Amino acid sequence: MDAQSRGRADEIDPADQWVLNPRTGHYELRLADSEAQQRPKVSAPRKATAPSAPTAPSPSPAVPKPRRGDAPPRRRGGRSRKGAGGGRRKKALIITGGTLAFLLVGGSVAAYLYYEHLNGNLSVTDVAGAGTGGFKKDQPINILVIGTDKRTGAGNESYGDKDSVGHADTTILFHVSKDRTNATALSIPRDLITNIPACPTKQPDGSTKTIPPTKGTRFNTSLGQEGRDAGCTMRTVKELTGIEVDHFMMADFNAVKTLSTAVGGVPVCLAKPVDDEEGSHLKLDAGEHRLEGEQALAFVRTRHGFGNNSDLDRIRIQQQFLGSMMREMKSKETLTSPKKFLSLAEAATKSLGVDSGIGSIGKLTDLAGELKSIDTKNITFTTLPVLDNPAEPEGKKATVVVDKTLAEPLLQMIRGDVSLTEVEKKEQAAKESADADAKAKQDALLQGNKAPAADVRVDVYNGGGPSGSASTTLKWLQITKGVSKAGNLGNAPAKVGATQLEYAPNQADQARALAEMMGLSASAMKMGTADAAAKTPMKLTLGPDFQQPGTPLAPPVPQELPKDVQQAQADKAVCAK
Fold it and tell me: Is the pTM of this model over 0.70?
């Protein structure tokens, strides 16, 4: 049964079944006419199980009518609402906003998805500790979006590998900034040669089976091959990029078809006509089109219609399509239409596979709430820079390898939570200008007197450095440098972006001495405003730039990408070439 048929009473439009809940003051959808639903209430999210169809409504339910006292109060000094016989009831959606659909295939929609039957649509995987297990409100969020090439669903026989067990055909690492103002969508080529680490996978009987590592193989085999699940892809991405993934979301070919149809089609622009007889059978004239269903899937699957017929060109086309779908789903027409919203809710959950950390509608709604304020102008698509595989002969290039020269600055920026959008860059430039005087003052501080090592008091914390860094540094300071008043306080309360030393003005001589021992730059020095009491230790927090005691800190995170790194903004429409 399609989404627009759910909750239908004969030929009643489901949009007309939005009725007022007198206890909350909000309009809510009444899916069936039963005594238990006369006063709808929000149910607590339950643990999702294997996909199952929602319970069908009774054959001829009557559309529930408002009871006495249920009518919305009249506005003082304003127009009154229409009566029951004067037209349809006022319809309202409580939109929490966000990017749920983008996390599936690139769109953006979220709302009060508390309906029990939507939980049953989700397919949930226990990834055996592959991710962090949950995002934190004061930290960046990293979500791995996977599109498989498994031929499931009617009409998909001509796409992908007919014998595929479901490989990671399209993979996007979606990084959301700590302040929730911007995001970077990093595409990882499927034909990238990489190492796949050992992968524990949960078995149907509850046991755990570890799949051995594989070196020098295609990235797309991190899913499906040898029984690997999405957790294996998460582990592979972490080893490849140095970025720990919080959650995954996975969809197959049907996601593109159902979501593009539910939103009423996705606008695309072609700079030239396309006639792909060899692969996807996409045939379109130059100009603007609105694609849905089979045509939408053919557009994102074609390898012979654009560029030089490579997977890298297909990635660019997919990014353009996803940006357009995002703009379409964030449009007022979509978010305020009950029909479209219901269709999107059904299509999104039916197409979605997730890890157990976000394996319920309630948890997905919490996630969407974290992402709702991101504007499309602050979302950047980019692709992990690669080179043709030098191990393959000329004329027979089929795989690629990481271009470390271009890839490392990009990955450093993502790890350092640096935005790739022009808007954010301008704001960052203004902030850096305002901080210039403060930095000059800090530089001057390093030029003063330094306390003897025996007088330096400091507590060492690990705020993102290698495991055991605080303990190793403590021993190094005490034994090698003679800092006998140092202490190890273990892990910091929160991770830091870079190593930092916090101290009071009357501890400046101690700070200079420790900075010289540790090789700290002025940017790592954080002086407070008030003097510290006698015998109060300074606070040294080791960050991800810390390698080991006595080794200079890693260079600062770059603020600009090399010009040859491909990127595109989600708010800009580009014609496919």
Answer: no
